[in-house]
Amino acid sequence: MNTESEHLDELLGVHDGMIDRILASYERAPEARLDLRQEVAIALWRTLTRFRGEASHRTLIARIAHNIGAEHVRQIIRRGATETLDPGHPSETAGPDQVVVRNSLREELLLGLEHLPLSQRQVVSLHLEDFSHAEIAETLGLTEGAVAVRLHRAKEALSRWMKTR
Amino acid sequence: MNNSINKAHPSWDELKLAWKTDTGTGSQALRTLDVRAVCERETRRLLRSVLLDWASTLLGFGLFVTLAAKAESIWGRIAFGLVGLVPLLHGFWAGHLRRSLWQASSDTPRAYWTLRAKRARFALTLFRTGPLLFTAGLLVGITLRLGLPEEDQPTLQPMIRGWIPPMIAALLVPITPYALWRLRHHQKVLRECEEVLAELAGEPEESQDLPTPTRPSPPHHGRR
User: Could you tell me if B218 lies within 8 Å of chain A, comparing CB atoms?
Assistant: First the structure.
């Protein structure tokens, strides 16, 4: 149990940023994201016992985060809660101009992602995490061709959306 | 990097940099501590659910097997035995689905949502047919006295006229609203799963109306 817990701690530590960023494409409120991260951790703990190394830990964790995120969105829809953060809300991170601009761009990007269909949103968030086409295909159970097409369409849709902002 | 990020037309590389601005909250130790406690609680909950599944399965199966054993005619035995198989099969299948879902979060999104849809369909079938089948089995079996030996019949008659029907009714009165509530819940879940699966399927890729780059395409807008 201790070794498993240590392994879990280690994996969560290494992939902390990726988990949060993927979850952010589904839920922008940081507090709600903490709960989702806990759910990701629990799901990871459940699956680690049967993990045989067929895929990388990164792929495994990305899958879990996407499944938990998509389920969260469905729950929100079911509850009828559609409140989203004010896009004009200032970023919590203060810092030099460059960081502020980047944070603001990130907020825009997250808003843009919310407008993409689920099939494209998942591909884009993994692409932003520097997953290769093959890794995205493995994570989402798609062919590389399908990944390429979805990514292309998503980029066009994002580009169109950002131009209208 | 520099400050010349073009917010109106950012390049893909700029978007990647912006995306990675968030590096996690860093309160790892605290969360892991919570996670361990929750994991242990979840394990206990799963164990309880599995035990409950098995208890109800064995109870249902045991009831009908006892009736089958009491029956004298072969048809009575077959009828009660077949009805007894229903809770047994339900127990096995429900347990299998519960265990599969327990670990399904690491499956591909399509597999995950397909499994959830399958579980919702199973629950729907169960709540639609289960109470009916169970009640019908009891009523038909007992009122028609399927092959029960003659010496049991005098005691059976007052039971049929007396406490068996109100007992079944008393069971059904709370079960029916519960079953209806669960039916509605699983219908909703199934609809959601089907919607997610449709969304995951996206537009048909086969049309290939767009070029299909095998590498991340270069930024097609924005200034570097």
Answer: no
